[in-house]
Amino acid sequence: MHRWQGRQGLAVQEAYDLAGTNYYNPNWGLQAGEKRNARISVDHKPMFLLSHYFTPNEKTEWVTSFYYTFGRDGQTNLNWYDAKDPRPDYYRYLPSYFEDTDPAMAAQLTSAWENGSAGQIDWDQFYFANGKNLYSVVDADGSAGNTVTGNRSKYIVEDMRNDPRRFGLNSVWSSALNETYRLSVGLSGHDHVTHNYKVISDLLGGDFWVDVDQFAEQDFLDPSAAQNDLNTTNRVITEDERFGYDYDMHVRMGQAFAQVEGTWQHIEAYAAGQLGIQSFWRDGLMKNGRFPENSFGPSEKQNFLHYGIKAGATYKINGRHFITANGAYLTRPPLARFAYISPRTRDAVVPGLQLEKVASADLNYIVRSPRVKGRATLYFADIQDQVWSRSFYHDDFRTLVNYTMRGVDQSHMGVEFGTEVKVTPTISTSIVYGTGQFIYTSRPLATITRDNSAEVFASDRQIYWKNYRVGGMPQTAGSLSVRYNSPKFWFIAITGNYFADIYLDPNPDRRSAEALDGFVTEDPQWDELLEQTQLDNAFTLDAFGGKSWMFKRKYRLALNVSVSNILNNQEFTVGGFEQLRYDRQDVDRFPPKVSYLFGRTYFIMLSFGF
Predict the structure, then answer these.
(1) What would the pLDDT profile of 272-291 be if each residue is shown by its tens digit?
(2) Distance CA 501, CA 578 (A)
(3) Do residues 159 and 209 touch, judged by C-beta distance below 8 A?
(4) Pair type for strands 538-551 and 555-564
(5) 504, 535 Cβ separation under 8 angstroms
């Protein structure tokens, strides 16, 4: 399947208010009167699978599968050189930026947003700027005396690619040892390569782009430091050519496992263990001018031996009531994409890289009767020694920085309850409810580095994340549904949903001693820096219905219709993030970026079976 999708951009609340809608999208604008989105994601990853089934006897089965997948995964975005930031919701283009220093400009910008002349991408301006920027590249493409003259694009659309290639093997042998025990053993392994690079998708009317880093041009006296590839200096780039960065990330893994299962009159139980080894490394295909010694060629391999154990049991009180329990402890290697400080430019890894540790357990009570089905669950999970890595523009340092943390721990615990009751032969109702406490439980150490040099701004900075909520999900949610099934082969269901305790992940640097330096607890900035962003609770209502028809006792026609968010709740903030860019003196200068649930939406499906 080849999927093209225009992406919705998150924005600050001020932009939504100025645009008059919570569905404002800063990623699009008009080009020659037609709408165009700057962020298009393209996903095309076919998979081939070959399986072999071997059953030497009725008690034994051996299944082996080989698989291979490849393809492309990318997303376009705007890039610019020696030009104004083209993002229409950039904070310097919002009225709030001027309201204290230039009220007249703030009023002018407010009017422009409200009448639609501001707030969206100006594609025509890009073509105008690119079409009058005559420029000569001396010694182009690393060839002395080679001069290329033309319109050098100030603005382009780039395609950031993460193209995968993976092949692997899974082989599982399973056999009943006797009437009580069954043993399963298996091997698995894969070799995964992700090709990370950028190409120019559209020069927007210009003739070429020069592959240099504009931040490095500002920060270094040596012009070679600005070259993104010293193997070919002053590279003149046209559409569909690679630029900026180009590297492969290799991940190679092999593991073995064994599991034994036992079945008795009232008890079923299992125990399992696994042992694996994983290696990953970066292979640079460009020699970066800021890091000529550790950007080109294969890096040192990072090797991790990991293991895991788990066990569980089911106690059958009778044929309709059960108690189950499960527990596990495992280690796992850090994700390769987070293990490197700045994989786009160099192969330096996060200091103190180590295995993650995960411990989990759950206890369940299950009911299965003709009229009532239900489950109640207590669960717990503890995750330790995670790696956290992001890049962003830092206002204090005035450059793009890499922000990495090690020793990030989380704890997830909670309860879940779900039941379905058949009230009458045609009416049933179901209730689902879950609530938990998902928190950070450590004070990780942060390393802050300049992206285009080896300069370290901070090392082992302690981040006071302990007891902050893990963001990105409702920590309390419930639903109540009523369904009617007609004897005449149609049904309708109404479901109400409630969401609460929704938080945005905290900006780590705001929760540090350095951020609070100079403030006292009575200062308003103290609480503004420390308080975590909590989103409002919300309620939605959905409906589902359908009908089916049989023809000649072998053909079936089915119609299904769903209406989501019937009440058209457009104020439900479903996600977002606290910006890593922040101002200690004025936290509201860079407020969180958020997104909203779509209003009323419809889905209709007609299917034919035979």
Answers:
(1) 999 999 999 999 999 999 99
(2) 16
(3) no
(4) antiparallel
(5) yes
SS3 track for 40-84: EEEEECCEEEEEEEEEEECCEEEEEEEEEEECEEEEEEEEECCCC
The Cα–Cα gap between 366 and 323 comes to 6
Closest listed residue to residue 343, CA positions, set 409, 387, 305: 387
Q: Residue 489's closest CA among 420, 430, 558, 561?
A: 558
- Residue 70 phi/psi, 5-degree rounding, is -155, 180
Distance from C-alpha of 509 to C-alpha of 532, rounded to nearest angstrom: 13
Q: Please identify which residue in the block is written with the tokens 């200068």.
A: 589
Beta strands in 144-205 (DSSP E): 148-151, 155-176, 181-202
Q: Which DSSP helix (H) or strand (E) runs through 34?
A: strand 34-37
Neighbouring residues of 600: CB distance < 8 A, sequence distance ≥ 6: 563, 564, 565, 566, 567, 568
pLDDT for 322 equals 97
Q: Is 299 left (phi over 0), alpha (psi -120 to 50) or beta?
A: beta
Radius of gyration from C-alpha coordinates of the chain: 29
DSSP H stretches of helix in 173-240: 214-219
| Rounded-to-integer distance, Cα 392 and Cα 396, Å | 12
Bridge partners, residue 200, by sequence: 158
Cβ-based neighbour number of residue 303 at 10 Å: 12
pLDDT at 221 (0 to 100): 82
The DSSP symbol for 235 reads: -
Number of continuous H segments (helices) and E segments (strands) in the chain? 7, 33
pLDDT mean for each 10 residues of the chain (610 residues) = 81 96 95 94 94 94 97 95 94 94 95 93 96 95 95 97 97 95 97 98 97 87 92 96 97 98 96 98 97 96 98 95 98 94 94 95 96 97 95 79 95 97 95 97 95 89 96 95 94 97 96 94 95 96 94 89 96 94 91 95 92
Give residue-wise pLDDT tens across range 111-148.
Answer: 999 999 999 999 999 999 999 999 999 999 999 999 99
* CB contact at 8 A, 339 and 353: yes
Q: Is 91 helix (H, G, I), strand (E, B) or coil?
A: helix
Please check whether residue 246 is in contact with residue 158, taking contact to mean a CB–CB distance below 8 angstroms: no
Is residue 429 within 8 Å of 482, Cβ to Cβ? yes
570: its two tokens: 């457009």
Q: Cα–chain-centroid distance for residue 563?
A: 27
